[in-house]
Every structure is written in structure tokens, then in C-alpha cells.
Hints:
Strand content: 5-15%
Shape: globular
Oligomer: single chain
Number of helices: 5
Amino acid sequence: MSEKVKVDQELKFASNLLKPVLAKIREYEDVTSAMHVCRGNWTTDESVLLSGAYSKLSKFFSGLKVDMLALEFSTPRAGEVEELFHNNLLAKKIILGYGVINPRTPTVESVDEIVKKVEKLLEFLPPERIWLNSDCGFATFSNRPLNSYMVIEAKLRNMVKAAEVLRGRV
């Protein structure tokens, strides 16, 4: 968000842009609308990327008629997932595309780490409203992704294995 304009004005501007698009999507049956909030995916330096809990955007999110929020939670910069559900109706209405792997770091998240993150989220959402995903895409720059294909594959493989573990519990 710009530092030159008040946050509430920017959110109103964004809402006015998004609402007609989301309304058009709702005209189609069996289509899930989704919105991703990107905190930055151009560098491996986490210190220069956007930070702050999503609770500051919960009123904005609640006002949108979107089926899924695809949010980044693999990094502490996003705050705690429970902050997303304080004092709003999101837990009753959204699917959460839950960012559980970080495309910016070479560290491969373990299956157990991913499962533990999701177990925390299960306190707020039922399993059928949780979709696992990476924080952002892996190919911000097609000619130089932030990670090697070997690291990307390992991260995605562990995310799939974690989903299989979690589905086995249902």
C-alpha cells in the first residue's frame, strides 16, 4: 500500500475494483473465486518484504464476496493464523488457501512441520475449507526462479505428503 494515501482509502479503492470482478465470477456455477494477498516474492531477503498480521485486513476481507483467500503463512512476517479469525465472520464463510511452504527460502519444510501448522488452523476451520498451497509462485522470474527445481520439487512433494497425512485422519 502506498504511504501517500490513507490505508482506508486504498482498501476502498481495491474493494471497488474487486467487487465487480467477483460478482462476474459468481455468475458461473461451480466456480470458486479466490484472492491472493502477496507480501512480496522478488527476493530471498525476508527483511525487506511486507509484514504484519492479516487481522488488519479482516474487515476488508469480510466485505468481499470471495470464496477463498490465498494467504501467505509460511513466514512469521504474516503473524499468527488465529489473528485472521478474531472478531469477524471469516471462519464461517471462507476457504483458506493456506500458505505452508515458502518459495523464497531453500529450506524444505518437513511433512511434520506442515501438518502441525494445519493442526493449528483446524481449531478455526473444518478440513474441507483448508487448501494447502505455497505462499506465492515459485517462478517470479521465469529465467531465474528463487529456488532450484530440485528444492521446489522437494517442497511441493512434502506439501502433498502432508495433505495425504491429514486426509488420512478425516
